[in-house]
Amino acid sequence: MAILIDEKTRVLVQGITGREGRARTKLMKGYGTMVVAGVTPGKGGQEVEGVPVFDSVYEAMEKVGPIDASAVFVPAPLVKAAALEAIDAGVKLLLLVPDRVPIHDVLEIAAHAERKGTKFIGPNTLGVLSPGRAVLGMIGGRPETARQWFRQGDIGVSSRSGGITSAISYYLSRAGFGLSTIVHVGGDAVVGLPHPEVMKLFEQDPQTKMMVMFGEIGTTQEERVADMMERGEITKPVVAFIGGKAAKEGTRFSHAGAIVEGGRGSYASKVERLKKAGAYIAEALMDIPRVVTEVRRKHGLD
Amino acid sequence: MARLFEYQGKQILQEAGIKVPRGKVVETPEQAARAVEDLGTEAVLKIQVWLKGRAQLGGIRFVKTPQEAKKAAAELLGTRVKNFVVEKLLVEEKLKIERELFAGVIIDDYEKKPLVVFSSMGGTGIEEIAREHPDAILTHHVDVLEGFPEYKARGLLSRMGFKGKLLVKLSSTLSKLYQAFRKYDARSAEINPLVITEEGEVYAADTHIAIDDYAVYRHPELGIEIAREFDRPPTELEKIAYKVEENDYRGTFYFFQMVEKPVPDENYIGFHGAGGGGSMMSMDAVLNRGFKIANFTDTSGNPPASKVYRAAKIILSQPGIIGYFASGSGVASQEQFNSARGLVKAFMEDEIEIPAVLRLGGNYEEKAIEILETFSRFIPGKIEGYGRDDSPEFCAERLKELVEKGGRKVHRVKPIKEYTPPPGAYSFKTLTGRVYIDHSLCARCQARDCVEACTYGVLKFEDGKPVLAISEEEAARGKCTECLACELACFLDGKKAIHIELPIPGLAEYREKITKEG
After folding, report:
1. N or C: which end of chain B has fewer CB within 10 A?
2. Nearest neighbour of A166 by CB, restricted to B127, B281, B329
3. What is the ipTM of this complex?
4. B109 with A189: Cβ contact below 8 A
5. Residue A258: pLDDT over 70
6. Is the Cβ pair A254, B298 closer than 8 Å?
């Protein structure tokens, strides 16, 4: 089953003629994603990697039929316009890849998305990958490496860091485990699909038997996952690793999200809340496969 | 979050139509005296620094006369308060305060909406007030498509018991604060205290506004030097680094100094991470091995080799470091050979003698490690490259061993020599630099690896010499990605005919200054 993306998802690429859009279209197609159209206003009629390019999302939908998801690769200042167009055209899942999208633009995107029932992932995300099925975004770099790094299986991965999404997934695969879907929720303070939302999707997904979550200091995403576990909304086992133990309060380490605001969201608060709610805490990244092994044994998952 | 000074915040509030005390920013005791004279009332002098609780720090003085103001200003200006040197004071009329309230707008990350917060009991200990006197606190999520008009504010505040003219003034203030918050892309905008005077007027007595880093470009009028949060003014080197980032949109580069003058005995190393999560994890690994980091740097988002090169040059402008550590998540999706090329170009130019452990795991890591190994023999210090199957802990341990084995060499910063192109050199502009090719050396070249190395098809041979295969405009616009492959290939062939000049404005002067300082 997997979540969010599989081989049947019909994908649009906005900004397909740009440097990143072009390169990542090649990766997505090479991995098996059904990329059906691209959009760059003013460049309609071209082709990129065999994908037809249109001037607007509306036109793309008219010509190629329904679109399930759009990967947005336009420069940060243009993300809002691209996202609003896709939402207006009726696309139900957006992936906002760019870093440095102004937060007030994200608030506007969120307001429109809420009205139309659209989900969006990111901004500042590497994307989503369901091993052996499809990738939305840029996880894995090249199709060969993505195939080599990530095995199919029953662990769902949700992470606030792009590199760590790949790292956890690779180290789990190397240890012989498999993954249902891996999700980089995005590194910013406000993201469309934070951990709790992703966990909800994994909880409902029959292929997923357990989850691994990488959290960071800042925001309340991890605490909310703990709340959901206590309320019984998440029943599958959760292994969590929280980064930023050494980070000074208030010092931001690149990720806009990694900041402690108003006393919430500290390393200690997250770990404590998650432990109390019954999550398993890994103390280091390299420790995750070992913790996962123990959790699977305990829950009879092998 | 780029913080604004109080006087900047008040300008924004005033522009939005919120009452602020009459006042003036001054930089000398004489200006302070004059300001108080002009006000013609008792006044308050406030230091302009990004710190809360200035009163406890002695940064707020009440004065009755211009003479008192002059004396107080002389005492405040130039003093050091935490990490700041006081350069500016805000001189304001003293308000006759009847009551103190709090108003703020922040972003609720989970609801993805602005949250208006109002407290009728002031802002000090607001979490406690919310617990003990929930009726005194108003919180309201705003739908950005609807906004927060006065009538909404009025409805909410009237339920809290405000009436008549005061109700109207407060609702107007709250609505205008929200508008200013939106207009200036604020992460947070607070008025604390929001004051009701004895005359029944509503004033913003103090304010804290922080602007979203990613939207600072929309507000050049604010004059924000570095769009990042600091609890001190940015260092000179940070300003140089920030210019690099500002002038190159490809990938991201972040540079933050933990210490301006690393002391070698204290185990400082240059730290070069990649990606937020991976950088933090890698930082933990070196800290756990007893190192301290002189700086925190992150180049990620598939940066070009030129950006990684500049990052390395800036890291290597810190004297006193005893090692160089680069590491990210280990399973990066970016093209790692770019990082490898940027690093070796910087290391060779600076002839570094300290050891460097570079964990460039992920996409194209084999190629990246091969580049490091190939060029390590041209670098005096020991260089080791590692990949995704080598943990950050292992790599940090390796650096420790290399530092000890090499006799704890201390990094010396080299002056930057101005590059003089050979006469008649072929040259073209790239997005952030310039490529020079000395064609006189190409005639005798058998290897001709430069064009082959250029996988982007930017170069071709014409009469046996490498020249642009695309137009000069295309090269300058970014078609030449500054991958540095041609320069390094030519270097290996022993010709050194290609030089890619990647200027870093201000760095030569900076290095000259610190080498003089010894």
Report:
1. C
2. B329
3. 0.91
4. yes
5. no
6. yes
